[in-house]
Amino acid sequence: FKQKTAYEIMPSLVGSVFKPVLAAAALEAGEGDFTRECPGYDALNGQVYRCAGSVPHGLVGLDGALEKSCNGYFIRLGQALGADAVRAMAEQLGFGQAIPLTDALHTAAGVLPEREALASSGAYANFCFGQGELLASPLQVAAMMNTIACGGICRTPLLLETTLDETTGAPLTALSHVRSRRVLTKRTAAALQALLAGVVAGGTGHEAALPGQTAAGKTGTAQTGQFSGGTELKNYWFAGFVPAEQPRYTIVVLQDTQAEPAFSSAAIFARVAAGLEILAP
Known about the structure:
By secondary structure, the protein is of the alpha+beta class. The protein is built from eight helices and 13 strands. Helices cover about 30% and strands about 25% of the residues. Strands 11-12-13 form a three-stranded antiparallel β-sheet, sandwiched between helices. Strands 1-6 form a two-stranded antiparallel ribbon.
């Protein structure tokens, strides 16, 4: 560590795992009852934004939009909230900010688009479902999901606890970390916990379910614009926590720049969570 001044956990394209940020902004603004009729796409200023497979979702509210990961819903919700409110919530949840590990080590900050960039309707539409310029590391996504799991309290992820004597291994100096801070009200966090539990119970994250145990989280598939053999490589995410009530573990799975992964990220989440339950005292 002596010769390093920075350590970068590289940021990635995020996709729909970002949608809980908009859900949080909506609940904090009293817009949790927002609904939209989804025909499978959204047309905005001559640009068409499609839901996965162009599948119509019908009339959806916040719960159904998260469970089905409806892009059009979140575009329209973002318009109702305004770019400043959505970007501010993303910033409060840690996007666009490096996470300090020690005084000399930190993660990459990723990219949170500036307000000027989000003035473009196309850029803002993409931002609302986690595409475009937005980049984040798995650690930042974990911090966001952990805030929801912890009842709205944001705690900087702790990776390094102390320095050690190189010869004896004895602990030397405990490392200081940013204190916790409230980002969401308890009511908003509880609502988000229930909404994300619905994503696992009956939505796109159903493969994250564990036998005899509840779980909550959000799927994400980010288009990278990179191709291999004519197939676009994508980032496949699942971020969540277990149990859904009184969470013990926050887990983030990212399979980046993959064509067709052997297992979904939600299924990998379930296997990791099951392993942690076995190891738990």
